[in-house]
Write a structure and sequence with these properties.
10 helices; Rossmann fold
């Protein structure tokens, strides 16, 4: 709560307070440079928090190292997929389960293949040979390898053809259907508000609006600024 964070002398986030309840999809929308990705990086402990507190399942994690946050069940799937493109699908997925023992890792890999059968079919292909939609599927599946409680997705539809965007939407719905809480940053505000239970609008590092998605989508300023209506 009241988080300040950034990269240089001046903070990008200027007292951001938000919450995500278990089982929800919550979206954070805003213009480029508003601080959306910075918010996710602060939560996942990739950048330091200068002021304020971050709690995960009631536990203070503001000063916890990022790898320990992952072990607690919080996963950040960053913008741009960040796959190891010269490695196979299977190798990328196995890296996502680095916290697991061998027997547990095999079980989780089998579960991911059950959820995303196409990845089982492509497990020996190099990641670079996949379509954009399939690469995004690998990125999401890699994050699910640790059986997270909370997944943060940064721009999952970025750069995808329109027909693939609907596949990403179904992936996000399927994550929540498995009992995983989701926080979504998505430049496609229309898509984000369709998927989410609640929404926050971030402007220049501050929360400008929050509420149920059905209310936010009807806000005239949101409609004009982000939905083109």
């Amino acid at each position: 709560m009241g988080v300040q964070a950034g990269y240089g002398p001046a903070p990008v986030l200027r007292g951001v307070s938000l919450s995500v309840r278990e089982g929800e999809i919550v979206t954070l929308i805003g213009s480029n440079g508003a601080g959306k990705s910075t918010t996710l990086r602060a939560i996942s402990r990739l950048i330091p928090v200068r002021a304020g507190t971050i709690r995960f399942r009631g536990e203070l994690i503001s000063n916890v190292s990022s790898h320990l946050v992952v072990r607690r069940g919080l996963v950040h799937i960053p913008e741009g997929r960040r796959l190891f493109t010269d490695m196979t699908v299977k190798e990328n997925l196995l890296l996502g389960g680095y916290t697991c023992g061998r027997r547990e890792l095999d079980g989780r890999l089998a579960q991911v293949y059950e959820w995303f059968p196409v990845l089982g079919e492509r497990e020996h292909q190099l990641a670079r040979s996949l379509s954009g939609g399939e690469q995004q599927m690998v990125a999401i599946a890699r994050g699910l390898m640790i059986k997270p409680a909370f997944v943060m997705l940064d721009e999952p539809s970025l750069g995808l053809a329109p027909k693939l965007v609907s596949q990403v939407a179904e992936m996000i719905r399927s994550i929540r259907a498995r009992g995983i809480t989701v926080m979504l940053v998505e430049q496609n505000a229309r898509l984000a508000l369709e998927l989410a239970d609640r929404a926050y609008v971030l402007q220049t590092g501050r929360i400008a609006l929050e509420g149920p998605s059905r209310d936010v989508v009807n806000n005239q300023e949101v409609r004009a600024a982000y939905l083109g209506l």
